[in-house]
Amino acid sequence: MTIAQLPIEMRPREKLLKHGASALTDTELLALFLRTGIKGKNVFVMAQELLERFKGFAGLIHASAAELKTFKGMGGDAKRSQLVAVLEMARRALTQQLTETTVMNSPNAVKQYLQLELAQLKHEVFAVLFLDAHNRLLSYQPMFRGSLSQTMVYPREVAKTALALGADGVVLAHNHPGGTVKPSQADMKLTRTLQEALALIDVTVRDHIIVAQGKYLSMAEEGLL
Questions:
Q1: In Å, how far from its chain's centre is CA 27?
Q2: Domain span including residue 202
Q3: What is the DSSP string of 214-225?
Q4: Residues 6 or more apart from 178 whose CB is under 8 A from it?
Q5: Is residue 224 part of a domain?
Q6: Where are the strands (E) in the chain, listed by range?
Q7: Whether residue 190 is found in the same domain as residue 137
Q8: Whole-number Å distance between alpha carbons of 57 and 152
Q9: From the record, what ranges are coiled-coil (predicted)?
Q10: Counting C-beta atoms within 10 Å of the first and last residue's C-beta, which end of the chain has fewer, N or C?
C-alpha cells in the first residue's frame, strides 16, 4: 500500500499537519521523508527495515552515505544525500540548543544528545562536554576510544582541554556497547580521579552519564558523584 492509498486521516503528512510531528511513529516519519518505496516494497516497509537495519534514528545519525548506499532503495544520490543532510540538521539543532541554554536545566536534551552521539557506536568512547560558568556547552569532544578498563583516560588531557576552552565545569560521558548502563568499578574510579584532577584547576565535574541503546544513567541523579 502506498501513502496515496491510505485514508486521508492516516496519511503521515495529514497527521503531521493536524496533530504535529510528535503524533507520527518513527516509521511514519521516515516514510513521509522517503515518499516512495521500491518495486515489491512499499514505503512503510522500506522505512521500517531501514530503521531496523540502522537501529533507529540514532543509528541513522551515524550512518555514512556509503553505508546507506548498501541499503536497497537508497542507492540514488539524491535521496541518500537528503537523508544525511536532514539527520545532520537534527544533530546541529540539538547542539545549538545546548550552546544557548543552561545544560544542567535541560537534562533530557543532554541525554538525547549523548544518545545520538554515542549509543549506537560498537566501540566504547569516552567523551567530555565542556561547560562555561553558566553551564552552557562550549564544546563536545570525544577524547578516548576503547574499553575504560583497557584504554587509559588521561586526566591531564581533559584538564588541558578544559583550560584551553576556559571551561568552568564538565559533564563526562561514555557508552556501554554491551547494553547495560550500570557503572563498573572502573567507571567509578575514573570519575573520582577526574574529579580530583579537575578540582586542582577549579573545574567541577557536573555529571557522568553512561548511555547504551535506548537507555542512560546519570551518576549525579543516582547520587554517585
A1: 19
A2: 102-218
A3: TEEEETTTTT--
A4: 212
A5: no
A6: 125-131, 137-145, 169-175, 204-212, 215-218
A7: yes
A8: 31
A9: none
A10: N
Instruction: Answer yes or no: are the C-beta atoms of 217 and 183 closer than 8 Å.
Output: yes
Q: Which amino acid is at 126?
A: F
Look at residue 88 in the predicted model and tell me its pLDDT: 80
Please state, as a whole number, how many other Cβ atoms lie within 10 Å of the Cβ of residue 30.
23
Task: Please indicate, yes or no, whether residues 107 and 68 belong to a single structural domain of this protein.
Answer: no
136/167 Cα distance (integer angstroms) = 10
CB atoms within 10 A of CB 68: 21
88 lies in the same domain as 108: no
Q: C-alpha cell of 178?
A: 554491551
- Residue 151 is given by DSSP the state S
Q: What is the pLDDT of residues 184-218, one digit of tens each?
A: 898 999 999 999 999 999 999 999 999 988 788 99
Q: How far apart are CA 71 and CA 73, in angstroms?
A: 6
Global pTM value: 0.69
- What's the DSSP call for residue 26? H
